[in-house]
């Protein structure tokens, strides 16, 4: 190789080696910068992704907090499913017979935004629901809401028929419906509920007032069965009382009637009925007239039944005894009024005779013996001038004169001038025969021991003993004869009161009542009956208590006494009466 060639080879090697070293240095820096740049870009992208997710979840969390603290919007009448299916406790009588219970049912609703042709929906539904309100239903189906009730509490047959129609945009919601197996038998005692299964009247309303309504309002109820609520009434006795009361309206052509049976030692109501009444399964049919409970929510002048309390007052005061006599020969004239006897004897009468002949004059003189203040205090003590306390919500306030004058005391002595409820009259009557204890009435079971704790001694035991004698005497010899039931020793006092019409007493409109107890040798039960404006064949109100209210008591006792466990006694000494044929 020539020198020149060798020089060129050496130069080329030298150039390559230097370039190689130079490239080695600058190329390494370039590679290192690229890696750093790409790493920073990756970190930035991850940071942006994390920030994006953070913002997204913060927005969701904020909305959840907003929904949590915001007031709920009422967009429809629908309730949560658990509240729609919430159970009410069964109501049962003292023997466990069901008076009210829940049954499962369904209700029909529509989702208007899914309805294509409202007219077609109405046309199809009308084939099953014949009483469908077309105008109202059309308005619901064309509304802008997303939910509308169409019909509550359908029968299974109606549900299956509507399902077969295949209508889009409608559906069914499970609910519970209150069912009353006895129908109207205990209507005014049991009461009824509204469409949302909330108590409206009677013991149904009482159950709600004890906390069920509050629990329901805060959503703490469930669809699990609750412990039954046992009432004091005996369904067998209740059925008898109601049947007698309803028959009395037809028999005496009265505008109303009622009766009650009370245990005199416990205050338990064994049966109570007022007519006209209603069917709790369909309360709207009865109307306001049927809803009115005349026994506890109606006030009436009780007439001569009040003479029982006036005579008891005289005996309890110590100023009168069974041997006392009063001059009933002449009418009493006071304040422009004349007080006279309906069937006056025109002679001096003993206390038993005043009670037997129902003397207004004699009773007025007994009240005058005690005095106005003593008279008012005694009736207050017996609970006849104050609102009665019991579980039943429908209880009326008695009325009395604002200022008691002598004329007021006289008329009140024989049952005019003070209006009370028939139920509280019966309760006060129980105190006359049970040893003098006033016991608040109850529609829940109560033992004698429990009753003694709430009882108030309002009469001397000796007064109660004398009143038992007078009740038995009148039952055997006086106006109570039509209530006598062989073997059960029934005693009592009738009361025929003229009703006030337009501020004046109408002699052709009577309120007839009979206050009775049995058996009088050891009273166990008080029975009170009444007939409001009974009519005779002559078409007026001349029918007396002895021929209307007293026979009602006889019918009730003759049928209910054996059920209540009262054993009949025959013969003078109470032993069985043997008859030879």
Structure description:
With 581 residues, this protein is an alpha+beta fold. Helix content is 41%, strand content 18%. The protein is built from 19 helices and 18 strands. The strands form 6 sheets. Strands 1, 2, 3, 4 and 7 form a 5-stranded mixed beta sheet that branches. A hairpin with a 2-residue loop joins strand 11 (332-334) and strand 12. The longest helix is centred in the first third of the chain and has 67 residues, at 3-69. The protein is elongated.
Number of helices: 19
Domain unit count? 2
CATH class term of the largest domain: Alpha Beta
User: Please, what is the CATH homologous superfamily of the largest domain?
Assistant: DD-peptidase/beta-lactamase superfamily
**Which percent range fits the helix content?**
40-55%
Q: Which radius of gyration do the C-alpha atoms yield?
A: 42 Å
Could you tell me the CATH topology label of the largest domain: Beta-lactamase
Overall pLDDT: 86
């Amino acid at each position: 190789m020539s020198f020149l060639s060798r020089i060129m080879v050496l130069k080329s090697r030298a150039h390559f080696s230097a370039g190689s070293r130079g490239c080695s240095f600058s190329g390494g820096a370039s590679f290192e910068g690229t890696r750093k740049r790409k790493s920073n870009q990756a970190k930035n992208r991850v940071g942006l992704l994390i920030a994006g997710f953070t913002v997204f979840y913060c927005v969701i969390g904020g909305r959840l907090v907003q929904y949590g603290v915001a007031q709920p919007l009422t967009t429809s009448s629908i309730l949560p499913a658990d509240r729609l299916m919430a159970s009410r406790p069964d109501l049962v009588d003292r023997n466990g017979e069901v008076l009210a219970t829940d049954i499962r049912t369904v209700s029909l609703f529509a989702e208007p935004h899914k309805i294509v042709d409202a007219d077609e929906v109405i046309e199809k539904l009308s084939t099953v629901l014949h009483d469908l309100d077309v105008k109202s239903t059309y308005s619901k189906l064309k509304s802008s809401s997303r939910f509308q009730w169409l019909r509550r509490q359908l029968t299974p047959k109606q549900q299956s028929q509507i399902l077969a129609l295949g209508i889009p945009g409608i559906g069914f919601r499970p609910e519970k419906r209150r069912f009353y197996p006895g129908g109207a038998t205990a209507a005014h005692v049991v009461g009824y509920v509204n469409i949302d299964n909330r108590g409206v009247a009677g013991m149904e309303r009482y159950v709600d007032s004890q906390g069920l309504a509050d629990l329901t309002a805060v959503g703490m109820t469930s669809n699990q069965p609750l412990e039954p609520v046992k009432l004091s009434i005996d369904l067998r006795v209740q059925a008898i009382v109601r049947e007698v009361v309803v028959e009395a309206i037809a028999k005496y052509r009265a505008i109303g009637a009622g009766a009650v049976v009370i245990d005199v030692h416990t205050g338990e109501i064994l049966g109570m009925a007022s007519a006209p009444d209603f069917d709790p399964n369909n309360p709207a049919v009865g109307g306001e007239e049927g809803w009115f409970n005349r026994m506890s929510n109606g006030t009436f002048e009780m007439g001569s039944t009040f003479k029982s309390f006036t005579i008891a007052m005289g005996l309890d005061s110590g100023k009168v005894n069974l041997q006392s006599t009063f001059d009933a020969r002449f009418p009493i004239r006071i304040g422009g009024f004349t007080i006279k006897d309906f069937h006056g004897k025109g002679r001096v009468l003993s206390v038993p005779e005043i009670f037997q002949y129902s003397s207004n004059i004699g009773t007025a003189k007994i009240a005058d013996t005690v005095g106005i203040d003593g008279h008012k205090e005694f009736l207050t003590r017996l609970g006849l001038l104050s609102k009665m306390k019991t579980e039943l919500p429908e209880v009326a306030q008695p009325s009395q004169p604002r200022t008691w004058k002598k004329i007021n005391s006289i008329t009140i002595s024989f049952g005019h001038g003070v209006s009370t409820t028939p139920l509280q009259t019966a309760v006060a009557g129980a105190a006359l025969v049970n040893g003098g204890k006033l016991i608040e009435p109850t529609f829940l079971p109560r033992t004698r021991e429990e009753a003694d704790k709430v009882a108030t001694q309002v009469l001397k035991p000796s007064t109660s003993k004398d009143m038992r004698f007078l009740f038995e005497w009148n039952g055997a010899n006086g106006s109570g004869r039509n209530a006598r039931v062989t073997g059960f020793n029934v005693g009592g006092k009738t009361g025929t009161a003229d009703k006030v019409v337009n501020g004046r007493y109408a002699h052709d409109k009577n309120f007839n009542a009979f206050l009775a107890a049995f058996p009088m040798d050891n009273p166990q039960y008080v029975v009170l009956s009444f007939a409001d404006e009974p009519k005779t064949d002559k078409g007026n109100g001349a029918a007396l208590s002895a021929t209307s209210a007293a026979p009602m008591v006889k019918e009730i006792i003759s049928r209910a006494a054996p059920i209540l466990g009262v054993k009949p006694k025959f013969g003078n000494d109470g032993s069985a009466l043997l008859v030879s044929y």
